């Protein structure tokens, strides 16, 4: 039971605009704009005269900012469009959302997009903190250039994507996992189906592969991914100089069989289970420890190292104390239900906090096991 991710390829910056071809078609575009009913804004979005230098500026300075700070809440890929506003295509960002158009092409310095990132109004984005001055200046310069943007992905829709307009069954948590069909495309450097799937996706998106990693890089990646620890110099030399054809597979098996594997991947589950050694509040300036909480941490690590089936892994945590003749380890596993923020201050309302504790368990269990939230049931 492990997840191993290999970084096989990277994006290759590319510009889909051919300036010479576009200029050659300008007369045809003029005729179309005169004959067909088309608003000035629509024409400017589709046919704005941008140079390859402007597009390169967008790709180098603007797209990374949007992906890092905006896509999580305003993109089709994430399934979110807060404020009925998406920022992942040229048409969507020009159209704006519930607060109005994001870009003012007549007065770029008055654009709503610039106002919200400068924290000048009621709407302040990104919510986690104001961008640095250099990033804000880059976006301002991009707006002055006319907001050149080559993004024309097929996920663009004619209307804003509201969560209420989406089919709940499209959410991954409500669909039965299916085995992927074997890819049709193969590459000479392919080692397994993961390489084939990566090659198929890269080919469809026009992405080129990186060169194959050296043995020294590969062993470092394996150790960090599967154990969280770097290999020693002797371990690197042994792997690089090994002559067995299945040297890689042997190393993977050895790392999965090591105690460090459970410690590495147990951290992910402990985060989901909101594990902590303390109650979450400080009393008289000191944190109060949950006695014995470390036993749950050790149980999770041992369960992963012993490859405990997921149904048993889940049952023991949710209701280990309710099993017939529960073992000590079953009772320790059910400590999951006790890993909540509690208070012991004087004057607290016991019934109120009991409800708070119960709702916390409902929210966490639904998020971890159902991939959704039942917080509204509180």
Protein topology:
Elements: H1 19-24, H2 26-35, H3 40-47, H4 52-69, E1 74-75, E2 80-81, H5 90-95, H6 112-117, H7 133-144, H8 193-205, H9 215-226, H10 233-240, H11 247-257, H12 259-272, E3 278-283, E4 286-289, H13 293-305, H14 310-319, H15 328-333, H16 350-370
Antiparallel strand pairs: 1-2, 3-4
Q: Count the DSSP helices.
A: 16
Structural class: mainly alpha
Proportion in helices: 40-55%
Strand order of the largest sheet: 1-2
Radius of gyration: 27 Å
Shape: globular
Give unreliable regions as ranges. Answer: 1-49, 155-160
Can you characterise this structure?
The chain is 46% helix and 4% strand. The two termini are 34 Å apart. It has a two-stranded antiparallel sheet. The protein has a two-stranded antiparallel sheet with strand order 3-4. It has helices at 19-24, 26-35, 40-47, 52-69, 90-95, 112-117, 133-144, 193-205, 215-226, 233-240, 247-257, 259-272, 293-305, 310-319, 328-333, 350-370, and strands spanning 74-75, 80-81, 278-283, 286-289. Helix 4 crosses helix 7 (133-144), helix 9 packs parallel to helix 11 and helix 12 crosses helix 13. The protein is mostly helical. The radius of gyration is 27 Å and the shape is globular.
């Amino acid at each position: 039971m492990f997840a191993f991710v290999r970084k096989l390829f990277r994006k290759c910056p590319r510009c889909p605009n051919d300036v010479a071809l576009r200029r050659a078609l300008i007369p045809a575009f003029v005729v179309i704009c005169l004959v067909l009913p088309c608003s000035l804004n629509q024409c400017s979005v589709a046919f704005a005269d941008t140079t390859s230098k402007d597009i390169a500026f967008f790709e180098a300075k603007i797209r990374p900012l949007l992906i890092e700070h905006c896509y999580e809440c305003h993109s089709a890929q994430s399934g979110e469009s807060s404020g009925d506003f998406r920022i992942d295509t040229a048409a969507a960002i020009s159209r704006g959302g519930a607060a109005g158009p994001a870009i003012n092409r007549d007065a770029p310095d008055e654009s709503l997009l610039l106002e919200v990132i400068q924290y000048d109004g009621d709407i302040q984005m990104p919510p986690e903190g104001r961008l640095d001055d250099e990033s804000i200046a880059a976006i301002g310069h991009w707006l002055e250039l006319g907001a050149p943007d080559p993004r024309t992905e097929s996920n663009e829709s004619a209307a804003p994507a509201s969560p209420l307009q989406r089919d709940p069954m499209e959410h991954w948590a409500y669909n039965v996992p299916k085995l992927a069909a074997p890819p049709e495309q193969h590459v000479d450097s392919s080692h397994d189906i993961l390489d084939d799937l990566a090659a198929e996706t890269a080919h469809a998106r026009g992405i080129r592969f990186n060169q194959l990693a050296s043995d020294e890089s590969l062993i470092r990646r394996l150790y960090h991914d599967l154990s969280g620890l770097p290999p020693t110099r002797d371990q690197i030399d042994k792997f690089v100089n090994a002559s067995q054809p299945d040297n890689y597979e042997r190393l993977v098996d050895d790392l999965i069989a090591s105690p460090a594997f459970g410690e590495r991947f147990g951290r992910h589950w402990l985060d989901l289970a909101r594990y902590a050694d303390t109650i979450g509040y400080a009393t008289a300036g000191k944190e109060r420890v949950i006695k014995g909480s470390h036993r749950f941490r050790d149980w999770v690590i041992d369960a992963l190292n012993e490859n405990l089936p997921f149904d048993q892994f889940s049952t023991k945590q949710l209701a280990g104390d309710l099993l017939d003749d529960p073992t000590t380890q079953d009772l320790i596993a059910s400590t999951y239900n006790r890993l909540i923020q509690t208070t012991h201050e004087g004057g607290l309302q016991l019934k109120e906090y009991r409800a708070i504790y119960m709702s916390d368990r409902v929210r966490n269990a639904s998020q971890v096991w159902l991939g959704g939230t039942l917080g509204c049931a509180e």
